[in-house]
Amino acid sequence: MSENFEYSYSAERQSEIDAIRKKYLPQNEQEDKMEQLRKLDGSVGTRALIASMALGIVSALIFGVGMCCFLVWSLWVLGALLCVAGIIGMLVAPWLYRKMVEKRKAEIAPEILRLTEELSQK
Predict the structure, then answer these.
(1) Does residue 86 fall inside a structural domain?
(2) pLDDT tens string for the chain (122 positions)?
(3) Domain tally, the chain
(4) Alpha-carbon gap, residue 85 to 66, rounded angstroms
(5) Using CA atoms in the order 101, 105, 106, 111, what is the torsion angle rounded to 10 degrees?
(6) Cα separations (Å) of 64 from 53, 91, 92?
(7) Which residues contact residue 60 at a Cβ distance below 8 angstroms, ignoring those fewer than 6 apart?
(8) If I label 53, which of 62, 88, 108, 117 is the partner at 20 to 30 A Cα–Cα?
């Protein structure tokens, strides 16, 4: 009588099973707070980055059109005005980023401090 015991283990399969299982388990309150803290911290610079990048890109395009007016179409006054407007926009973009980050930090600071206090006490 031949009774063979066969066992195979796959780390990839086990990690996939664990990931699926974790979706259906009730979440721990502390893990939930930590996730909330990570999301709040990550959201600080997102809006500011989008706004400052948009301003910088639009300003660079305006500057480029001004250079075209200047060099290609010989529209000296319009080209100079567009170039100056583009340069001003590009110089304002980093300032806009810093101000928006400072404002967002001030808005979410109480919530961040509350969550860190709760998590550090446990």
Answers:
(1) yes
(2) 567 777 676 788 888 888 888 777 766 766 778 888 888 888 899 999 999 999 999 999 999 999 999 899 999 999 999 999 999 999 999 999 999 999 999 999 999 898 888 888 86
(3) 1
(4) 9
(5) 160
(6) 16, 15, 17
(7) 86, 90
(8) 108
